[in-house]
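Sample 1 of the test manifest.
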Amino acid sequence: MTHRRTTQVTPASEGPGHTTRTSSPRDSADPSSLSAPRAVPSAAPGLPQVSEGRSAEVQRLVIDWFSRNARPLPWRDRDASAWSILVCEVMSQQTPVARVLPRWREWMRRWPTPADLAAAPASDVLIAWDSLGYPRRALRLQETAAAIADRHGNEVPHDEDRLLALPGVGAYTAAAVTSFAYGRRAVVLDVNVRRVLGRVFAAVEHRPASLTAAEKRWARALVPAQDHVEWNAGTMELGALVCTARNPDCARCPLLDACAWVAAGKPSDPTVVRRAQAWAGTDRQLRGAIMRTLRTAHAEDAAAVPTHLLTAATAALTADDAEALAAYPSPLRTAIGAVRDLDADGARTARLVDDLVRDGLAARDDRGIRLP
DNA sequence: AACGCGGGGGT
DNA sequence: ACCCCAGCGTT
């Protein structure tokens, strides 16, 4: 069903002018949303008070900039369904937009409503997820689809609390759907928004990794009562395109003259020792390899790699027995062989596959591959 | 608050 | 090599 969507301002081709683009049809009543922010946020460590005048000026600049610089992303189309927006938000969790685009198109073509996704074999879902990463998101999204189909009449909930109750939907995603799909006021706080607000108002290059309740309150008070959708989308877009984590393009920033971080001389954060990112040789890499190989083998020949053979793979991997392995169909053999190359003694592979099985890999039977 | 969780592109 | 990305769930 087609939900009314808010107007995402499209790149308006001309003139720097029209700041105010009023929102289009939204949910009529807005009873549960936050009360309009009057007062400036309560002070918290590193989060300065912001005068109403300055807040309003920054809001105006961001919204105006967004009206002229928004990327024409398909989920910003007026006729994009709430479901399509939820899918895009989940796919975008920790994954750059450019990588999401092709998978999102394919998903929406195949599964245009939650019920469609809920009815699909899990193996199809994982294969369509492809290499977006964090494949558990795909499984949670399918669980969410089933919940929406079964308990919400196949319509994405309008209520932020009900959105939050869905698997794989956290504070960010619930707020994003509330704002972008339904045009209701919400505090959309992703890594981009946090960075932009932190620089402009708090004069720090990067916010701390963890998001505190105090920062949420602070950010909430900065969301305007009007044009909040454009503010949410605009701060995100500004963070993605201009106020980037590294090498921000301050020369093109509409907030150049309003930015506390720039005014302070763009100080760098005190260097924090970051743990070297381990990847090669880790369980994580190995598990990713198992995923990829099984996915590929199943996609190439689903009959050869049904779920019960995945269970058999466990035995073969554990036994480290070439003869036993030879008993399995070729695509599966290839998959196991490829994984083995990463784990010469086989112990870790065996344990990981065993974990996969225990967590339900084998239990799903005809639903296809079930991985963590 | 701190972890663990994929994978690819940019610098 | 390392950093970063429209985060979430668990401990």
